[in-house]
Amino acid sequence: MLPWLLQTLRRAAWAPILVFSLHVVASRVLGLYRIWPPTDIPMHFLGGMAIAFFFGTAYRTAGERDLLGRPAAVLGGVTVFALTCSATVFWEFAEFLSDRYLGSHMQSGLEDTLGDMLVGILGGVAFLLLFSRRALMRRAAGRAPQTTNVP
Fold first, then answer.
1. Would 150 be classed as within a structural domain?
2. Residue 42: inside a domain
3. Distance CA 45, CA 89 (A)
4. Spatial separation of the C-alpha atoms in residues 69 and 85, rounded to whole Å
5. Cβ of 8: how many Cβ atoms within 10 Å?
6. What angle do CA 149, 145, 57 make, to 5 degrees?
7. Is residue 148 part of a domain?
8. In CA terms, which of 58, 85, 87, 89 is 20 to 30 Å from 115?
9. Highest mean pLDDT pick, 47-51, 94-98, 145-149
10. Range(s) of the domain holding residue 40
11. Cα separation, 127 vs 81, whole angstroms
12. Distance (Å, whole) CA 93 – CA 101
């Protein structure tokens, strides 16, 4: 398991780290969230894409290491989608706890929280759709195996 985890981190941890770093710079250095609150929308979208990329890479790496057996092709997309949805929920829990116990004021109400989750999930769906299109084009060109189901 440890080699799989390390390989996944080497391949894909850069994406969520990059988005989180952009978030920190945008909020703490530039004050963009205060100046233009809708900055939150593209950040959650990019976060959803980054986390879907990470989970997709983890799934593919597990498949390469024969840790998954032979799941149906659709299972990769469903798994990545479910994990991305879970990550958006836990991110919002973290924001809630930070607001409650650290006084960070990241959430401005239920509508904001639900909107953030929706946009994060849409980012993950966008990643899955882009990947699916790319995988279909590769299969049509004969450059990818028929079992490719996530990045």
1. no
2. yes
3. 14
4. 24
5. 19
6. 40
7. no
8. 58
9. 47-51
10. 2-140
11. 10
12. 12
- Is the pTM value of this prediction over 0.85? yes
Q: Helices (H) and strands (E) in the chain — how many of each? A: 6, 0
Residue 87 has pLDDT above 70, yes or no: yes
Confidence check: pLDDT of 34 > 70: yes
Distance, in Å, from the CA atom of 9 to the CA atom of 57, rounded to the nearest integer, reads 9
Compute CA distances 77 → 14, 29, 87, 115, whole Å: 21, 36, 15, 23
- List Cα–Cα distances, 120 to 50, 53, 133, in angstroms: 10, 13, 20
- Classify residue 129 as exposed, middle or buried by CB count within 10 Å of its CB (0-12, 13-18, 19+): exposed
Structure tokens at 136: 């279909």
Distance CA 97, CA 91 (A): 10
% of the chain at pLDDT higher than 90: 72
Note the pLDDT tens digit of each residue in 56-80.
999 999 999 999 988 887 899 999 9
Instruction: Report the domain count for the chain.
Output: 1
- Structure tokens of 131? 């990947």
Neighbours of 5 (CB within 10 A): 12
